[in-house]
Amino acid sequence: MTSPSEPPFEGVRVRANARSGLVRYVPGESPADVAREAGLTPADVAKLSSNENPYGPSPRVLAALREAVGDPEVLLRYPDGASRSLRAALARRHGVAPSWIFVGAGLEDVLQAIAARFLEPGAAAVMSRPSFAMYPILTRLFGATAVEVPVQEGRHDLAALAEGVLRNEDVRLVWLDVPDNPLGTTVDPAALEAFVAELPDRVLLVYDEAYAEYVAPGAAPSGVELARRRPNVLALRTFSKAYGLAGLRVGYAVGHPELVELLEEARRPFNLSALAQRAAEAALEDEAHVLEVVRRTRAARKRLARELRELGYPVLPSETNFVFVPWATEEARRLLASSECPAGSLPGKAREIAIGEAHVRLKRAGVVVRPFPPLGLRISVGTEADVDRVLSAFRALRDGEGTPQGGAPTN
Ligand SMILES: Cc1ncc(COP(=O)(O)O)c(C=O)c1O
Q: Which of 238, 318, 324 to mutate to test the pocket of ligand 1 (most atoms within 8 A of CB)?
């Protein structure tokens, strides 16, 4: 809404690549907005659109935060701009020196620093389609070309990604999320090793393992381990998922000190608040809490995937805190179908509705998932109660309930 006193905008000059309008990141909808739209109370809405951890952080984090906010000195002083104590704790965790650790206000901040330091007009970055939505956005924001390589059988096509790198002298980096967001799938460790061996030394591999804690042992290569061996690999981790701290914004990269030093030049001076630094450090001290979160999430994920399949929905294999349901589209069939997942088919009445319509109907039932047209829907796992709600909403979609034709009430 424009206020009456607003002067007309004449158009200040912006970067050449921004003139045509850049695509923005669209965050998951809030339960309050969905509740209002659907005529429900926020407590009746399961927000399963941002892959958050419904169990929250360790009680130790809450105690550390309570102590910190009780101390005005913590609040009135600037925080340690270098996040020394947190970086030392992370370095101990990963068996490296603190000079190997770069911290950011969430991985978004780390990704931004990487893009700022390595990308520019004339440069290119290679990534899978689909993978994390910020990769093409940041690549274009910094004026570089986004080379998007379609996934194959629901997984990163490492051979095609390597080809994309080797054919193009302008490529500076590869954005690779393992597991992939939104698909939840991983890559074969031997195939990744071959991919990395083929990567020219001048090309940086940004190995984003935001969901690393959820991955079963051996199901995906360890980025941190790779970064320790290869000077052109950065491994990315976050406190937003298994550590339950998405609201405080803490993420980090592990990599060769020279890479970290380059990123330091692009870092905002006080990028992590004092509270975020203390919370993350306290979270690291309670590994048992993270293990319990992961155990519960994996159990709920297993049931969600099994029962969705029993309802007749295809579900991609997942090593994360979400699952992906491919829709009955030509693209889903072409990119996602494999012996593990018969993408392209849907049960009953679900076959008759588009992804956008499914998203809207699920919302009316109080289940907020993330649509990825034309491929399908991504559903965060949530709690066992959330899983119950998802299953009943997907059963209703299959049976055509809650539709104008079906005649059942929509809320
Ligand atoms: C693959 C991937 N990378 C990075 C991020 C950003 O995480 P953060 O909350 O640390 O900014 C996400 C968040 O969903 C993600 O899925």
A: 238
